Amino acid sequence: MDTNKMxxxxxxxxxxxxxxxxxxxxxxxxxxxEDYCNTRxxxxxxxxxxxxxxxxxxxxxEDTCRTSTSKEEAVQEAYNxxxxxxxxxIEAQGLKVEP
Length: 99
Fold this sequence. Notes:
Layout: H1 3-17, H2 39-54, E1 56-58, H3 70-92, E2 96-98
Parallel strand pairs: 1-2
Helix pairs in contact: 1-2
């Protein structure tokens, strides 16, 4: 996931948790636009990123055995496709996937 998408999720969660703080809490630094002015928000953003970085989901490896029947090949292809779809969905949430 790119940083902008992750930041959108973070800011949405912050607004939901602290609606009374308003948009001013999420103001960015003019000197370092990647940083927030508010130290509490800045620390929460760091923790949000670190939590996403720490999670790695391990998927089973793709099925690479060659089979002789078209039914078995179709099952293998569907399995591998499903793994790819799972990988994409997990990575879209900002998490890492292995292998």
